[in-house]
Design brief:
107 residues, alpha+beta, 5-stranded mixed beta sheet, 2 helices
Length: 107
C-alpha cells in the first residue's frame, strides 16, 4: 500500500528533479526475484523543514548484483552539490537479506 504523508499545513517546497528516483529504482532492481517473495516499502514524508524518503526491500537469496554500482555514488555527489553541508543526509543499511535507505533533505 502506498504511503505518502503530507500534513495539510506544509507549504509547497522546490525539489531538484529526479533526486528520489535512484533509491526507488534500486528497490525494484534489487528486490525482484524468482521466488515471488518480494517486499518493497517506500515512505515519503514532508514536513515544514523538508522531505524524508525511506525505502526498504528484501533481497532474494538468488539475487546477483550487477557490477556497475554507480547509482549511489552518483546520487551522493549530486546531493552534495544541490544540498550542501547539513542540507541532506543519506543513510544506507544493507545486509545479505535486506536493504534500506533513508534520505533526508532540508528544502
Amino acid at each position: 500500500m502506498p504511503s505518502c504523508l503530507r500534513p495539510s499545513s506544509c507549504p509547497e517546497q522546490p525539489l531538484a528533479p529526479l533526486r528520489l528516483l535512484p533509491l526507488v529504482e534500486n528497490c525494484f532492481k534489487h528486490a525482484i526475484g524468482a521466488s515471488g517473495l518480494n517486499t518493497i516499502r517506500i515512505r515519503l514524508q514532508q514536513t515544514d523543514a523538508g522531505l524524508t524518503l525511506r525505502t526498504d526491500n528484501n533481497i532474494p537469496p538468488d539475487f546477483r548484483p550487477a557490477p556497475s554500482g554507480l547509482g549511489l555514488p552518483n546520487l551522493r555527489a549530486r546531493l552534495a552539490q544541490l544540498y550542501p553541508d547539513e542540507r541532506h543526509r543519506l543513510a544506507v543499511d544493507a545486509t545479505a537479506a535486506h536493504y534500506a535507505a533513508t534520505l533526508q533533505l532540508v528544502l
